[in-house]
Amino acid sequence: xxxxxxxxxxxxxxxxxxxxxxxxxxxxxxxxxxxxxxxxxxxxxxxxxxxxxxxxxxxxxxxxxxxxxxxxxxxxxxxxxxxxxxxxxxxxxxxxxxxxxxxxxxxxxxxxxxxxxxxxxxxxxxxxxxxxxxxxxxxxxxxxxxxxxxxxxxxxxxxxxxxxxxxxxxxxxxxxxxxxxxxxxxxxxxxxxxxxxxxxxxxxxx
Amino acid sequence: xxxxxxxxxxxxxxxxxxxxxxxxxxxxxxxxxxxxxxxxxxxxxxxxxxxxxxxxxxxxxxxxxxxxxxxxxxxxxxxxxxxxxxxxxxxxxxxxxxxxxxxxxxxxxxxxxxxxxxxxxxxxxxxxxxxxxxxxxxxxxxxxxxxxxxxxxxxxxxxxxxxxxxxxxxxxxxxxxxxxxxxxxxxxxxxxxxxxxxxxxxxxxx
DNA sequence: TTCGTCATGTAATGGGTTACATGATTAC
DNA sequence: GTAATCATGTAACCCATTACATGACGAA
Lengths: 206, 206
Prior knowledge:
Two copies of one chain form a homodimer.
Chain A: H1 8-19, E1 22-23, H2 24-35, H3 43-55, E2 59-61, E3 79-82, H4 84-95, H5 99-102, H6 104-112, H7 119-147, H8 153-183
Antiparallel strand pairs in A: 1-3, 2-3
The structure holds a DNA duplex (28 and 28 nucleotides).
């Protein structure tokens, strides 16, 4: 059971395939173009993942069948498309606003598909990531304060650069959150129960 | 065989223990304070790693024995120290200037112990990382140029932020490299053979 | 005496990579 | 016709995590 459920790949594949049907090779290129700054997937993980998703019925092979390529018997590319079940599963993944959405490995992928994510979920993910980073800042800052003197210049420089990067990402998140907030003028005060919300559609997904 | 050879942990442990003997719990705290912005280790990987390193003879238990704690039979903390072999191994790890030193997962740890790394090796690692990042920039930039139009605003923003972060790190590396170069006024032109280099000591390590 | 944190460990699992193997198609 | 790149796949391994289990010690 190498690779479909639980990993980031599942979302990455499902999300990509939702936009348009693709074959494995092309899918990988797109993914690495999309997330290239953060991570890169290899074929060794992608193909087994596709196989698993196929077995689970979340994706299906797409037959070119009739038009534009009448050659028979030739099928080297295997183009996959999302099934109805697959769309459901994708929706499920995109609705989860928990650590699995805002940790380092997964945040980028989730963000990349924000277009298909509900506005409220987007906000909670952004805030989740921000507080995750702030936690990190706090713990490193306090640890640093206690030991700053006995650190060599390289270690110090690493700390400085690390802090700066994370602080920068927090600022970036702040801006995003502010923008998102303007988008949803509902929930004036904080509500613990979240029943129906009349005009809050942003999901698209079909 | 969970965990000692090959991983980043080996270097992290050996490097930390070189500065001062430590027990596992404290070691982990230090490591996570040192590298907290980049990654975090768990006990589940640290302890098995220590066990392995102990078995390999790279570290040894340190007996408090005589002074300052005369209570007998009590030994809840297990303090480890580097052996001669361990120091050798550490030196070996710190001399490797290859992908294993400048990839995302490992660069931080290598940088953190630059104090114990030869000046030339430092330079090659910094340059290696820089060109690694530049490769990434290139491939993402070209891919982006071909598909910019059909990208939604979230994807675009992710790309922008990713590019900016990496560009920023490249600039940081540029500065570091410049500083390093001032430190070693040898090799006026590029030499393919690198035989002895008389006065290039910075290693310390005993 | 109970709670937090210090302290050490193990088993199961996980999610992905590397390296390998194969073959079709395109460009020169 | 041969080299590059497109395209698909598998087996072995890797490095670390999660979750669990245990217990000592200090402070409230």
